[in-house]
Amino acid sequence: MEKLLLCTGNQGKVLELKALLPKGIELLSLADVGLPADLPETGATLEANALQKARFAHERTGLVCVADDTGLEVDALAGAPGVHSARYAGDAKVPMLNMAKLLEELRGKEDRRARFRTVIALVASTGSHTFSGSVEGEITEELLGSGGFGYDPVFRPMGSELTFAQMDGSAKNGISHRGIAVRQLVAYLRALPR
For this structure, is 75 an active site residue? Predict the structure, then answer.
């Protein structure tokens, strides 16, 4: 398998996946194949959304397609924003507004435990597979750091003094929810017959 269509318009995800995938796999973007940057994701779970996006792209291109859906689950908010993480503060998907809403809803709450979960779906003509990763942590009381994307400035993984946004890319990829899921995907790809 030399080509993978990465079904996301999020450039942060593209960069993370490029860094984690083995050399020799050409990553194609949605723009490369003439598909819109925003694919349908109407599922009630991360897995359903990831599969929906990958199937949508595969049906239109015939390529091996990889899509992910990621959610931030906050205990004090009964698991919200969860599957709605990207659109938490509205359909415009503005990370700063999402983080502002999250911090406002957690104001005064002592329990700031949270987890990031990612589900990656691979859809090919031979079938579909999913891979998942999760990392426990907490929500900080303010934005810390300028790296990463999404909720990275407010998420501090357990055992770290830094938020994801304060870590360099390789440190984050080494422990992140997406890194865990991508390593499962890579192991699957490497085990395929050549």
Answer: no
